[in-house]
Design goal:
Helices cover 66% and strands 0% of the residues. With 98 residues, it is an all-alpha fold.
């Protein structure tokens, strides 16, 4: 949770760099997708701030995984089944680029 303000600050810095030094126009959708970790779902090649892909993968794992595990424990009330179901969900329903 504490990394988000720094992440957004760095995105702002990257936007200024792209506009000022590289003279590259960024669309609002591209900026929003990066800011909310959605760029990995629909981009084959990330040209703006490509280093952010790993943080996006981590955020999509750490936030929904625990919610899915909690939901699984509410449904089946056995940790090993809930855990394996959550792992299988993330294994089979990961974003695909090809």
């Amino acid at each position: 949770m504490f990394i988000l303000p720094l992440f957004w600050l760095f995105i702002g810095f990257q936007i200024l760099l792209e506009l000022g030094l590289r003279q590259r126009h960024l669309s609002y959708s591209e900026i929003i997708e990066h800011a909310f970790f959605l760029r990995n779902f629909n981009a084959l090649e990330i040209t703006f701030f490509p280093e952010s892909w790993s943080l996006a993968i981590e955020e999509w794992f750490y936030l929904p995984f625990h919610a899915l595990l909690w939901l699984g424990l509410r449904v089946v009330s056995r940790f090993n089944i809930a855990f394996l179901s959550a792992v299988a969900f993330f294994f089979f329903f990961q974003p695909s680029h090809g």
